[in-house]
Amino acid sequence: MRRLHEFLAFCCLIVLTLAPLRAATASEITIAAASDLKFALQEIVSNFQAAHKGDKVDVIYGSSGKLQTQIREGAPFDIFFSADIAYARALRKDGFAATEPTPYAVGRIVLWSATRDAAKMRLEDLADPKIGKIAIANPAHAPYGRCAEQVLRAAGLWDKVKDKLVFGENISQATQYAETGAADVALTALSIALSKQVADRGGYSLIPETLHSRLEQAYVVTRQGADKALAKTFLDYLKTGQSQTIMIKFGFAPPGQAAR
Question: What InterPro entries would the database entry show (predicted)?
């Protein structure tokens, strides 16, 4: 009996000794990412974690403006992927980011519909009385929503369609409105329109870049993520050919290149 107690005590000692070692070797980061990245980043993170067993990467998606506000209020995010480089610059300027903004992609905006042949649609068609609701992301805090407003104003359509607009909290929600029938058409991100989940349900047409400001996107490491080696490891992985191929597949142009 005494030997049994000694053996159990030894086992407990081993467990207590190894537990901190396991905690020390496993790493975890949380990323705040603009919603237009959802499908591309899901694939990249999945590949990354397959090659980094034991490490964990969580991603929270939302509008860039709201995510920026949450970081300022102390949200536990280690990396911030913004759909507008201006939000990343502001965080750095105000001391909430540990790195300078690094551009990672240029986005595009499209007309998308599940009920109409969007590939043949023109912007002028949005004024057609047969189109009841038009979904866009909220321009107040979503870069794609701001660009959608710029497009409608530049095309001389804003006053004609403003009463038809329904606003999503982010670009993903705006797309969902058009997917579910709450809107007839959405002005959404090309990266979302190209995802299998959305492409199988509708079509799209590209909106000329000349009608809106350039969707230059950038990331920063936050103050919280400054000392996390996994944050740097993940961002290095983002620059690999495999990751860049995924970004291009979802319609993102590499920094410094013309958008698709």
Answer: AvModA-like_subst-bd, ModA, ModA/WtpA
